[in-house]
Amino acid sequence: MRIDLPAEPKRILIVKPSALGDIVHTLPFLYLLRQRFPNAHIAWLVVPAFASLLEGHPLLNDVIRFDRRGMANWWRDLPAASKLLKFSSDLRRQRFDLVIDLQGLLRSGWITWQTRAPVRVGFSYAREGGAHFYTHRVPTRTHEKHATERYLDIAEALGCGRGPIVFDFAMAEIDRLVAAELTGRAERYAVLLPGTNWATKRWPEEYFAQLVQPLREEFGLDVFIAGGADVAPIRFDGATSLAGRTSLRQLAALLDRASLVVANDSGPMHVAAALGRPLVAVYGPTNPVRTGPYLREDAVLQLDLPCRPCYSRTCVHQSCLRWLAPADVLRAARQQIADFSADIAERRR
Length: 349
Prior knowledge:
Helices cover 36% and strands 14% of the residues. By secondary structure, it is of the alpha/beta class. It folds into 2 domains: 11-157, Glycogen Phosphorylase B (Rossmann fold, 3-Layer(aba) Sandwich); 173-348, Glycogen Phosphorylase B (Rossmann fold), CATH 3.40.50.
């Protein structure tokens, strides 16, 4: 479908509050939107936890922080209700004339409607009744289609096209300097990302630990553990933990210089994939076709079992991950590093 806009939008809002991987998958949409509307004021509504990844972004004019937790109990908490009313009023005062909801939920649909923008665009399949808040609903397949492809369906409907695919990150030189200092200015290093938000997505920690010595001895790589505060307690002999010691932008800068990244299905993994680093992404209960590293099928390591993908947060056996041995990951790592080196050589030629 093609959306006929009543006029060239001057103020545009992207509603994509979370999560980290979803925000990374939205960056190509932002690039195409800016190419189509170079003079528009473009803002992005996001939860505070991920705002730092977008603040100062060269393609954005503003980042609006959505304090979801602070307004969660508005129906029984007077300060929360007051905060929600002010938030809604502030949104309307910004007078957006095009708002795009890429979250597709009741909450994000309601936020879209609160702007009172004359054009409010979202997915026809938006869950929890969210689609009722839009003026234009874009049809797209939800199964066996990557999230980024669904966002590109909306970009195409707005006349932005589907390419080129560009992942722009708002990394500053200070972020790169901090990452360099944290790694001791190591020339070549591997980053292990053992964290993830589902227990069933976790490749066993002892398997990650068994990678450290081969990465150091065979590949000549220093090894660092990275991630959020939830990863901070994890320790592997021979590896240095930087978990919980970096901002999101510093984490991106750390991954941007990595010679290899080994990760669970997680937000930081999607950052590494978007940065084009040699990557082994270990997948268990989820489907990489839908939520994998975009255009990086080569980076995915998974077992073909009849019970997967199950999308379950609980499992009594976790065969899909426990049967993936460290030797399998190391073989994939060799291939990733070799392919990356060959690609660099080809570009130099």
